Amino acid sequence: MILPTTSRLSRALLLGLLVAAPCVGVATEAGGGHQLYFSGAFVRTVPGEEWSIRITGRVPSLSGCYLLVHDAKGNVRHEQAIAQGDYEDNPLEIRIPKSERAEDLRCVIIGQQEDVMGVNLPLTTLAYEVYGGKHFGKRSADILYFRPEGPNAELAIWGSAGSVKVLKEGRLLLEAKPETAKRKSPVAFHFTPGELYQLDTSHTFYFGMSHVAYLAFEPGRLFQPDPALASAPWWQSPPHAANAEP
Questions:
Q1: Residue 121 carries which DSSP code?
Q2: Which pTM was predicted?
Q3: Residues linked to residue 86 through DSSP beta bridges, in sequence order
C-alpha cells in the first residue's frame, strides 16, 4: 500500500492519527529475525548499488504504520504507509534507488510500539545497520552489541523492573539493577571508545542509555552513523512521491 501525500500538513495529520490510533493485538514471536523497539534504524549505503527495505513480521495496529527514509539534512528519500497485516509469509520489499556516493541514512517507523517491535530485523539488505536511540524495548534473550564513542568515555545505563548487564568477550563488567520495580536506577559505565561490548537485557523489557547509543544484533553490522541524522528536521522536507511498489 502506498499513500499519496500532497502537503506537509497532510503528512503531519497522518502521523498524528497513527500515533493516536489504538493498538490491537500483540506482536510476540514473529517466526524469524530479531525484534526491538528503537527510535531509528541507521544504515550506510554502497555507491552505485540499489538496496531494499524488507518488511517481515507483523503490523498489528488497525491504522498500520508509516515508514520514511531521510538523510543527514532532513531530506526525505522515501515515505509510504504500511498497512496492518501479517508479512511473515508475504514480505513487503521496498526498493530504494541507488546513489552515486556512500552516505548514512535513517529509517523511521512511525506508529504504535507494537508496530515497531512487530517488524523483524534486520530491516534492510545493507551490510551496515544499527538501531539508535536512548530508550529501547526487547522481549527476547538475544545479545546486543555496541561500540560506544565519545570524548567523555562515560554513559549511564538503566533497566526498568529488571537488570541490564554489560559484558566484554563474555566477561561481566557491570550490572544495572533498579532500586524498585517501578524506578530506574542508572549506573555509570566507563568505557574505552571504539571497544566492542555486549548488552544482556534478558531480565528486563525497557532499557536505555544517558545519550544516544547505536546497537546491533551482529557485531559486523556496527558503525558510527553521521551524528546529524538524529536531529535532522525531516518533518520540514517537502512531501516525497513514493518511488517503490510494494
A1: B
A2: 0.83
A3: 58
pLDDT in tens, 3-48: 334 345 445 444 444 444 333 333 333 224 899 999 999 999 999 9
C-alpha closest to that of 133 among 109, 152, 160, 169? 109
Comparing CA positions, the residue from 191, 199, 33, 188 lying closest to residue 121 is 33
Asked if 34 contacts 120 with a C-beta cutoff of 8 angstroms, the reply is yes
Give yes or no for a cis peptide into 122 (omega within 30° of 0).
yes
Residue 9, CB half-sphere, CA atoms under 13 Å: how many?
A: 0
Residue 214's CB is within 10 A of a number of other CB atoms, namely 24
- Cell 566477561 locates to 171
- Phi then psi dihedrals of residue 182, to 5 deg: -115, 15
CA distance 171 to 238: 49
- Taking the C-alpha atoms of residue 229 and residue 43, their distance in angstroms, rounded to an integer, is 11
